[in-house]
Queue: 4 jobs
Job 1
Amino acid sequence: MRFAITAAALLVSAVADGSAQEVRDPGERAFLQCYSCHSVQAGETKGLQGPNLSGIVGRPIAAQPGFKYSPAMRAFAKEQGFWSPALLDRFIAEPEHVVPGTAMSGYPGLADNHARKALMEFLKSH
Ligand code: HEC
């Protein structure tokens, strides 16, 4: 009986440890602000309002086949070409300021420098 109680206590503490380890890395946590509209899983677009962001760092701007980009984003693509890390960082900080008229206006931007740095690392690795 005593053994059973100890085993149960061990099980409870193991479960508690497991959930503690699930704390996401800061970049992934920042991406939670994006993932209602975007996916970083290659090819996943279903039900999402924004384009897929797999490999976005260094990718040509507005390049997802079949996605209806705003005229503002298409014009910006002609001007700038591709998402350099610096350009992407600025866009995420202030979307409407960097691409006036973008359809991403539902998202106000991520002003926090630390969170944005972590998010950039997350995007680079996906
Ligand atoms: C409310 C929905 C929404 C949220 C939240 C959102 N976006 Fe977007 N995003 C969009 C839409 C819509 C577009 C297409 C913009 C256009 O065509 O003007 C877009 C476009 C983009 C693009 C350009 C992609 C390409 O193919 O060139 C990037 C990069 C991007 N978003 C990153 C982010 C990041 C990073 C976050 C979170 C910090 C985020 N977005 C949050 C809706 C959203």
Job 2
Amino acid sequence: MSARPYVICHMMSSVDGRIQSKRWAFEGAARFFEVQAAKIKVDAWMVGRTTMQEFSSHKPRGKAKPAPRIPKTDFIASFRSKTFAVAIDPSGKCSWDSNEVDGDHVIEVLTEKVSSSYLHHLQENGVSYIFGGKSELNLKLVLEKLRKLFGIERVRLDGGGGNNGSFLKAGLIDELSLVLMPVADGSLQTPTVFDVEPGTTRRTAAKLALKSVKRLEGGALWLRYRIEQ
Ligand SMILES: NC(=O)c1ccc[n+]([C@@H]2O[C@H](COP(=O)([O-])OP(=O)(O)OC[C@H]3O[C@@H](n4cnc5c(N)ncnc54)[C@H](OP(=O)(O)O)[C@@H]3O)[C@@H](O)[C@H]2O)c1
């Protein structure tokens, strides 16, 4: 058995790979993402910090109070849920006033750059957290910890483009589930399905093997691929 969970990247894009569906005059676009996502059996969904801020608290956290030093060690809060919402949030920017998103227990993935006052905020709200590196994340280690500490065996990687790009670059995506919408976006400098930082030494273009194609209502397609590293 692998030491890390199986990772399925699930995204909805325009035909030109853009992912900001709010820009599209396509009523109910989000439903296309959600309906197919619900068909993928996983223990956790995982998103980048920018995307998670759409689900985390919108209340301002106020000025950080001085907090007693909290050691930079993993923290498993008490939780009832069997499923998880994971935020890749290296600097600790998401605020929480609950430890769940839609019933899924929240796990923050941090680096040791975060302050004790942020850890105090997470503990106060019953949010679990794990460390994935000192100042940069080791995504393989992150996945291994999710499996070891929370028993997560299958993860749905739900974006956004930067987050997906870093997992692609690290060779940690097993499948791509793409809902291709009948929209030509054409925007410049907006996130795409995979945004890989320039300057990487690893070949970033991954070859895909088609597993299935399903025609959805309204001219959308659901494409499923295995990623050949
Ligand atoms: N159509 C779809 O299916 C879909 C799905 C999800 C999201 N979206 C859209 O995508 C957009 C957001 O995408 P995005 O690319 O801008 O942001 P994102 O991928 O959601 O978040 C990127 C941020 O996550 C953190 N991060 C992720 N991987 C990291 C790594 N390996 N190392 C260090 N930090 C890492 C960094 O946070 P810091 O900046 O704090 O360092 C980074 O700036 C939103 O408009 C959202 O609505 C669309």
Job 3
Amino acid sequence: MLKKILIGELTLGMVVEKMDRSWLEHPFLTNRKKITTQAHIERLREYNITELYINTDMGLDVDAGPDGPGPEPDPMIEVADTLAPTPDGASPLPVNLAAPLKEEIPFHVEIEAAKVAQKEAHTVVNEVLHNVRMGKSIESGKAVKAVNHMIDSIFRNMDALSSLTRIKGYDEYTFVHSVNVCVLSLTLGRQLGLDREELQSLGIGAMLHDAGKMKVPPAILNKPGKLTDVEFAEMKKHALYSAEVLERTEGITDEAKAVAMQHHERFGGTGYPDGLKGEAISRCAQIAAIADTYDAMTTTRVYSRPMTPPEGIRRIFELSKTDFNPVFAQRFIQCLGIYPIGTTVQLDTSEIGIVVSVNHDKVLRPKVMLVCKDERRRMPVPIEVDLTDPAAPDSPKFRRTIARPVDPAQFAIEVDLYLPKVAL
Ligand SMILES: [Fe+2]
């Protein structure tokens, strides 16, 4: 039976089924949790959870709380609780969710090295795509080196490199998109605790996932409007073509080839080329599919206006119920935030600003550079504020909260002025 209780009534041995917050506002991926240590209770308090529902069939009731210290904590329960109740019944994966996410280097320091790594990747991808177009073989050495430099950057600071993916070059779509998908995949892969070897395969596969598009006739590739069935069938072959390119290249792992081959497979089984379902899809390809979809949706294309980053994030959340591994999709949202870096937002104070830093524990509470006092008045000097700041000392309420994302053009805000410059 579900019973609503106050946080003060929560004791060891109870099973929490639901909280009074969306998972977006706290770092616990799912709401069900067996309380096995006092630290669990303290963490819930830290996130201002005040009311919750316990399941008395699965754990202790309010009147039956133990007087003693309770059962020994089992570290696996935490991982299993986090992974088990996925909406599509996905099996728990060997994902190291305990991977520490401490940043070794602050964002503003890492951003310069991140730009160098991004530029190197652009150069390598440009060359590789050119060679594929010309029917030449490709050499993996430079690509592996570029991927390793990106992995290094993400390990030093997970936000710097991914913040650079917000620049979308329309003219060079495939080449910029390839690097963006690589960066976003590596960022998610790191968050999921993949080891270095797996990250390398993921990075190479993601970087070259669309190389096969160079073999699709340009008239189809760049056609404005809807493709005919025949054209779409040809377009779909690009995954196979990409895998063939990698197959002919020395030093490429099977996992990297799987990313190229399977990046359009969908967790629910509706993708192509083979209609694979769930865990039959390689784990790295599941990751790349999310990164690919997000970057494509938020990029200007011949035939559609781009979604804003918050719209893209919302869509990824919706698709997590059908198309993606739901745990990976939720982690992706935690990586980028509900309001990714560069999003213009209006706060409940009427102030308008730009998200300049993501809070991975409280994704609705990033840091914001305030630019306008309200719709009509500019700030004399931009001010950075932290949305986790309380309304008053010891108050459980927050001083500022995001009310809505807004179009920066409507307020003549040049977002790039407030963010690190990108070298393309
Ligand atoms: Fe693709």
Job 4
Amino acid sequence: MKLKDKVCVVTGAGAGIGRAIALEMAREGGRVVVADIVELAAAQTVHQIREAGGEAIAVATDVADPDSVIRLAAHTQQRFGDADVLVNNAAIQISKLVEDTTPEEWQRQMSVNVGGVFLCSKYFLPQLRRTRGAIVNLSSVNGYFVEPMCAGYCATKGAIIAFTKAMAIDHGWEGIRVNCICPGYIDAGLAEAYFQAQPDPAAARAAAGKLHALGRVGRPEEVARAAVFLAGPDASFITGSALVVDGGFGSGLPPAR
Ligand SMILES: NC(=O)c1ccc[n+]([C@@H]2O[C@H](COP(=O)([O-])OP(=O)(O)OC[C@H]3O[C@@H](n4cnc5c(N)ncnc54)[C@H](O)[C@@H]3O)[C@@H](O)[C@H]2O)c1
């Protein structure tokens, strides 16, 4: 077990990739704090973990709200002790052109996607310092390769890569490792919302699969394994990295024959 008795906090763990990470970390022996803005969703993840014999608690949290994150850190400490692992996964996506995006939508997306990473990192740092712990942030291939109709989202994912590298430099001497994951399209909420917004969701999904060299979209579990790797002892000399988990996302061109 890679995370035996490690206290693992996963934000946005009520669904999709975050839920898969929470389940995988519990399977690896972690004691998991499932943080999500949707309390019922967090409780459902906890239920799944306990059914599988793991240990977890749910904490209703808005990562964009400093008081809520302070409560999450305090609750984690009271129930399980200091956090060893923080996974900053919670995010939203506004799929609009810039001129159609309201300042409020822009602000909320920045506050959740980037502000949430900042606030959770800030308020868990005292605990991570004591445990010489690890932070894993969820960026995206959109931090490198942009796509239409999501300029604000791409900006937040690019910011997370820079933030990850900068924090790694600031805290490496304390034994804290900070890395991020850049997934391609994954069979989870944000990609699904995009497919559903297209005139033909099934066609959009198939087209997205073809953007990857492996010819398909990824599964949440495939990102979760990368998160366990970066959080655990196998990545003991890895910090400031952006691990691409994208099935070869890129050209979208068919292979030459
Ligand atoms: N799905 C993809 O194709 C894909 C690709 C690349 C990167 N990502 C990244 O992976 C992460 C998870 O994506 P997903 O597709 O699983 O999303 P999802 O929508 O399935 O799940 C996101 C979870 O975050 C929660 N959440 C939203 N706002 C929150 C807030 N303010 N505070 C706490 N929780 C909040 C939601 O309730 C939900 O449970 C995101 O960071 C996303 O940018 C996803």
